[in-house]
Amino acid sequence: MRYLPLTEADRAEMLAAIGAPSVDALFRDVPESARLSGPVDLPAHLGEWEVDQAITALAAKNRHSGALASFLGAGAYRHHVPAAVDHLIQRSEFLTSYTPYQPEIAQGTLQYLFEFQTQVGLLTGMEVANASMYDGSTACAEAVEMARRVTGRHRVVLSGNLHPHYAAVVKTLAALHGTEIVAEAPAPSGEGDLAPLLDGTTACVVVQYPDVFGHIRDFSALAREAQAKGALLVVVVTEIVSLGALVPPGEMGADIVVGEGQSLGVGLGYGGPYLGLFAAKNKYVRQMPGRLCGQTVDAEGRRGFVLTLSTREQHIRREKATSNICTNSGLCSLAFTIHLSLLGEAGLTKLAALNHARAVQLAEKLATVPGVTLLTDAFFNEFALKLPKPADAVVEALVARGILAGVPGARLWPGRADLADVLLVAATETNSLAECDAFAAALAEVLA
């Protein structure tokens, strides 16, 4: 075992200190029937160079978004991340910092988290935001739990056009508390009115903006209907760049806004780590999960930052905690803050406009392909297509042509035959017009 630093003499000395005759004696409480009779059937250890070769060959089998023309979306979006973001988050004072329990030595961390909260509040149009959560899906589930605490009710209405992975996480947590889930069926052409599903026992209604098929909807009326019945409106935003162009959910009357912050500063990363966003009305601040950073002054009147209202399970008794999520995605929230700071308000608006314009150009090209129907009439940078063939087979055929065409409905809703011909397509500022042309030409060829 060349990678282990202990010598036989070291092992003998330790065994003598604890009074054990051999290493095998340490496992005497494990039944013989549960022990292996020989080494595990795995390849023998290799040298560093050989391991590097093997891992590189394995990685080369992936067809990733950086190597192909990618139009993937469905909750994870490829955007350009400035080199300054990666450079700054790798500074040792950020990269190695941990939980800022001691404000006197963690002012830098606390300040950027405070600024992150401010940015999230401004983007969402909400009064207060926390210092981030694991990802968008867990933030969504925590919003439902928060609505249950605020209202004292146990019935939750989920939009059918909420991302199915988010809905699955909500249902997982809800099953632990006996929460009744009313989930609508997905509607690729646009969802109907959810208000009739609300009653006096409803804790909240959860909607997505833009929804999983890309539709943009004004939820002001739904917010009024929900609040009239004592329920909360929870709005989920999976593409945070969209709020550079769209009306913030807070201006529609949302009670809680959650989302995924991956689009700013974080990158795709094969699915993680990502960044959960969470904002709410100020009157619900004491029921918010996770941690919050606040601004104060010290004994000499100087501005300072501290953790406040950190009602997590490490801070108070478990049964009184608002959440058992025990951390915030600190480094990812820093990347988000740096990227958004570099953009500024004007830069974010311009980035959002670029995304929308490119998506419109792509949608117009694809809609001219024979047999293709555009299902989304108003969208930001993602839309749904109805194809004359199963979408998963079309996607596989286009991969062979160097194009990641999007996410097939069968991938998100397995077993739903009515969605098998639906394809979710996203375009961002990283997609060139030449890629859009190539996509349309290749799609026409595959469908011919």
Overall description:
- This protein is an alpha/beta fold and 448 residues long.
- The protein folds into two domains: 69-79 and 345-447, Alpha-Beta Complex (Aspartate Aminotransferase, domain 1); 83-339, Type I PLP-dependent aspartate aminotransferase-like (Major domain) (Aspartate Aminotransferase, domain 2, 3-Layer(aba) Sandwich).
- The protein is built from twelve helices and 15 strands.
- The strands form four sheets. It has a seven-stranded mixed β-sheet with strand order 2-8-7-6-5-3-4, sandwiched between helices. It has a four-stranded antiparallel β-sheet with strand order 11-12-15-14.
- α7 links the parallel β3 (155-158) and β4.
- The longest helix has 38 residues, at 330-367.
- The model has no long low-confidence stretch (mean pLDDT 93).
How would you sum up this structure in a few lines?
With about 450 residues, the chain is an alpha/beta fold. The chain has helices at about 10-20, 50-60, 85-90, 90-95, 105-125, 135-150, 165-175, 220-230, 330-365, 390-400, 410, 435-445; strands at about 70, 130, 155-160, 180-185, 200-210, 230-235, 255-260, 275-280, 290-295, 305-310, 375, 380-385, 405, 405-410, 420-425. The longest helix has about 40 residues, at about 330-365.
